[in-house]
Amino acid sequence: MERAKLSLLFALHAVTVVCSGGLLVDVVVDRYEIPKYCPREVETEDFIRYHFNGSFYTDGKKFDSSHDRGKAFISQVGLGRLITGMDRGLQGMCVGERRRITIPPHLAYGSIGTGGVIPPDAVLVYDVLLLDVWNAEDKVEIRTISKPSSCNRTTASSDFIRYHYNGTLLSGEAFDSSHSRNATYDTYLGQGDIIKGMDEGLLGMCVGERRIVIVPPFLAYGETGSGTLVPPQATLVFDVLLVDVFNPKDDLIVEVKEVPDGCTRRSAVGDYIRYHYNGSFQDGTAFDSSYQRNSTYNTYIGLGYVIQGMDKALQGLCVGEKRRITIPPHLAYGETGVGELIPSSAVLVFDIHVIDFHNPKDPVQIKVIHKPEDCSLTSEADDLIQYRYNCSLMDGTLLYSSDHFDSPSFTTLGADKVIPGLEKGLRGMCVGERREVVVPPHWGHGENGAGGVPRSAVLFFQLELVELQKGVPEGFMFVWLGDGPDALFPAMDLNGDKEVLLEEFSAFIRLQVEEGKGRLRPGVDPDSIIRDMFNNQDQNKDGKVTEDELSPREDDKAEKTGRDEL
């Protein structure tokens, strides 16, 4: 209400200050430039900082100027520290306002003048630009511009914060900006490391919050100012964006996002883990991602290969688990940061997804899902087997499947045709049996991976044995499953003509196989095997085998030589 009265009074001055004799009786105020926004007007007892040009009304001659001195004028209004006309003429001004104040002699230096500069009875004209206004009762003013919808923590005394700011004077003139340096301002709160007004104005902020902090001069740089950019007794305006906050006493913050059902094992010190991650700062700015590289991050846990906070955070996880991990700088990269990637004293936020982990001492894990009632015949070394399989990573990513082919896969056990872990998982199975087999990388494709299998990947196999053909030892084409005929050549010489042709030899061998007395090497064309066996016995290569040519059968001879099958 008082300000409204003053404004009305000034308006009346502008039209009623002249008496009948043509003399001014009061101050004339011409507000020729008024800012659109005026949050505060000058009142009695306010301190102000302003520029002016002083001239005589009669001839316009300049008698004083703060501009010429290169220094704004500072004073308090309404307490007689200025000439009466200025005390009145400055009332109700806004920062950024320009006004012309015409002052009659009796409200200026009267009939005496002053110092040889102002003659007696001089009417004075001041062109004034108001730069600043404050009061001894002022406090730090905070205006919140924006604030995140979720705010789990606010700044407190003794916290370390990183923030961006633009600093201006109350007149709008910029004096500093962290943005222009492309680096945050980093400091402790409440420790006296920054001006008092900012120590107060930065309390209670959320990461991502933006606020305007207006600091009166006595809570800023006071009478001395700061360098050439902040003048004495300047109110400072900071446009602040909080980027980061932590306390030296902070520990890890772990937020579990997703845990798969049926978690039977959790990661521990000494395990080797593969995981994907997105790395960001507290304000959400990303700094790294394994997804962008399309490659997991692989490391041992608890052995110092990663930052201390991550070493700790990777313990106690399940395969497939997702977590958000917030790591304070003293458990991350500290005050040094990492080049241009991670600033000094940065809090790091990792969203991780565990793909798999294992221990170098892990065995192959075999779980029988289904087993037929009749399981007397099981797979072993040298057997030829046919099996179905799905091979996936532990997160469920399918790598290979026998369903991608026209028929199930074949392999001979013990012939190094498959990775050791799969070999182990296929042994001891009976036809129709189904298994789940977990193969750690040292039983699989190791640190190098192989064609679609990532490095150090744990593999998950779903297996079903479809067919089993019992095998023969390496180097053999045929073995007896019991005692062969005591008189081998007569048993082989079906027509009794003392010589055995290929047809007779083949019929004899096939008969032994049909009757379960012998076994050919599985997975190879029988005609080819029998022909090779016949040629081995036909020593003179005349197309027939005689009793003299037939290798005598001695106990264990074939097993020892690995050549003479009969």
From TrEMBL:
Subcellular location field: Endoplasmic reticulum
The keyword NADP is assigned to this record: no
Bias-annotated ranges (Basic and acidic residues): 539-566
Record field: catalytic activity: [protein]-peptidylproline (omega=180) = [protein]-peptidylproline (omega=0)
Pfam families xref list: FKBP_C (PF00254)
One Gene Ontology term of the molecular function aspect: peptidyl-prolyl cis-trans isomerase activity
Source species, domain of life: Eukaryota
Keywords carried by this UniProt record: Calcium, Endoplasmic reticulum, Glycoprotein, Isomerase, Metal-binding, Repeat, Rotamase, Signal
UniProt function note: PPIases accelerate the folding of proteins during protein synthesis.
Name of this chain's protein: peptidylprolyl isomerase
